Amino acid sequence: MTLFLRRVVAYFVDSIVILAYLAAFTGIVLVTGLSLDMFGRLGQWAVIAVSVTLPVIVFFSVVEWLTGRSPGKWALGLEVRAQSSDMRPAILPALLRNGVKFLPWEIAHAGIWTIPGQPFIDPPAMHNIVLFALSWSVVLVQIGLVAMTGRGIHDRVAGLLVVRRKPTPDAP
User: Fold this and answer.
1) 50, 40 Cβ separation under 8 angstroms
2) What is the mean pLDDT of residues 14-32?
3) What span, in angstroms and rounded, lies between the C-alpha atoms of 40 and 46?
4) Which of 30, 68, 104, 110 could bond 135 through an S-S bridge, CB–CB 3.0 to 4.6 Å?
5) Which of 95, 105, 68, 79 has the alpha carbon at shortest distance from 6?
6) Which residue from 55, 17, 167, 44 is spatially nearest to 112, judged by alpha carbons?
7) CA 98 to CA 100: how far, in whole Å?
8) Contacts of 137 by beta carbon, 8 Å cutoff, 6+ apart
9) How confident is the model over 143-161, as pLDDT tens digits?
């Protein structure tokens, strides 16, 4: 399997981890009866960004900092390495990498949370369409860069590489 295909599958495995977190978060909100109605539309977006997007970025950053691998990378035999030293990434480059990686997600959220009226029911305004297009454009550039060069924008900005994991001498 090529490095690109391994990265794609690893991303989908990581997406399952994110979906599990979202399901748990949603369950807690439903069970506790918490409501975001008091915050207004932009306040709701801020609460979701802090309670969903930020924990996802921090989780993947800390795991990559401590182990060099997200759950998906672990499953697919990949690891994140510093470009200059072939070591696991430091925490700041890992945070930068994951922050940039999830940026299209947050751009799409901006498009959803700023729709006049009800999202997915009322028609979006032009700025919503622009935000959705920008989000998808960044995703497509990411896919193209990873497919052609093995490194996405998020890897380059952080000075990190995703490589196949080297077997350790003490591994069976």
Assistant:
1) no
2) 95
3) 10
4) 104
5) 79
6) 44
7) 5
8) none
9) 999 999 999 999 999 999 9
Structure tokens of 3?
A: 């490095």
pLDDT of 118 strictly over 90: no
Q: Give burial (CB, 10 Å; 0-12/13-18/19+) of 21.
A: middle
pTM: 0.88
- Bridge partners for 79 per DSSP: 163
**Among the listed residues 156, 130, 153, the one whose alpha carbon sits nearest the alpha carbon of residue 140:** 153
Cα–Cα distance for residue pair 87/138, rounded to 1 Å: 28
**Mean pLDDT highest for which of 40-44, 54-58, 102-106?**
54-58
Map the chain to HEC letters.
CCHHHHHHHHHHHHHHHHHHHHHHHHHHHHHHCCCCHHHHHHHHHHHHHHHHHHHHHHHHHHHHHHHCCCHHHHHHCEEEEECCCCCCCCHHHHHHHHHHHCHHHHHHHHHHHCCCCCCCCCCCCHHHHHHHHHHHHHHHHHHHHHHHHCCCHHHHHHCEEEEECCCCCCCC
Distance between CA atoms of residues 94 and 133, nearest Å: 27
- Report the candidate in 128, 168, 165 with the shortest Cα–Cα distance to residue 7: 165
For 81, phi and psi rounded to 5 degrees? -130, 150
